Amino acid sequence: MTKRKTISIGIPCYNEELNVLPAYKELERVAKQNKKYDFEFVYVDNGSEDKTRDEIRKVVKKDKRVKGVFLSRNFGPEASGQATLDHSSGDAYVMYEGDMQDPPELISDFIKEWEDGYDVVVGVRNKIDDDFLMTFIRKTYYRIFRAFSNIDVPVNAGSYGLLDKQVMDEIKKLPEKYRFFRGLRAWVGFKTDFVNYERRSRQRGKSSYNFFGYLKHAERSFFGFSYLPLDIIIYLGFLLVIPVFIVVLFYIFRYIIFGQTIKESAIIILSIVFFGGIQLIAISIIGKYIQVIVEETKSRPSYIVEEVLKK
Question: What's this model's pTM, rounded to 2 decimal places?
C-alpha cells in the first residue's frame, strides 16, 4: 500500500493568542477538503508576551497532528518562519502567518499546482487591505528590491506559498544566518508558479509590525541579496570626482592666464559638506555589509528552542 503524502503547515506566531484556535479551525477545514493527504500543523511561538503559548498547548492536546515549538525569546520574524520550516517533516510545506490575513482556502490551490509538477508555488497579493501609506511603501519597496537584487522576486509576493520537500531540504541546508525567506525561496530556483489572491484585513489582535519593523526587513533583503549599493558608490565616486577635477583645472587655468585669485570660500565649504555627506553614506553602506559578515562569522543559531510539544 502506497504511503499517503503529508502536507506540513507552519504557523509562526507572536502575540497571537486570539488567532491560535481560529487558525487551527480554518486549517482543519482545509485538511478535510484534501482527504488524500495527511497534515501536520507546526505552531512556533516566537517569545510571545501574551497567552499565545497557552493557546498552542490547548491545540496540541486536542490534535495529535499539531506540534508546538516554543522559542526561548523573540528572535525576529525570519527566525520563527525558519523554525516552522526546520520542524516540518512533510512532503510539502506551507507557511501560514499566525495573523490569519492570508485566506487558508488558497492552500488547496497551492496543492493543485504542486500536483501539476511545480516545486514552488508563491502567493502573490493582488490587493492588501491596508492604509494608503503602508500600501505605497510596501509596493515601492518590492519594486526597488526587484530592481536592486540579483534574484527575481515578484512584486507583492509574501511568505505565503508551498515548497516541495526537495526545496525545503535545500533551504534548510543553507548555512547563512542573515536570512530572508522570500529571497532564499527565489534563489534556490526550481519550477515555480504563482497564485494571485486578495489579502484579508486583520480580524483579531494587533499587528506587532510597524514602520521600523518593515525597514529592518527591507535592510535584510537588500544587504542579503544585492551588491548594487556598493556599485553605486563606485559610480557616484567617479561622477563626483571627474567634475571636481575639471573645476580645479579651470580655477588653476584662470589663475595662471588671468591672474585671478580664488576666493570661492562658499563653494569650497559647500563642497566639503557635500562630499562629507557622500562619504558618510558610503561608509554606512559598507558598514551594513560588514555587519552581515560579522553576523555570519559568529555562527550563532538563528533561534533557540526552549520546548517542543507534541501529543
Answer: 0.70
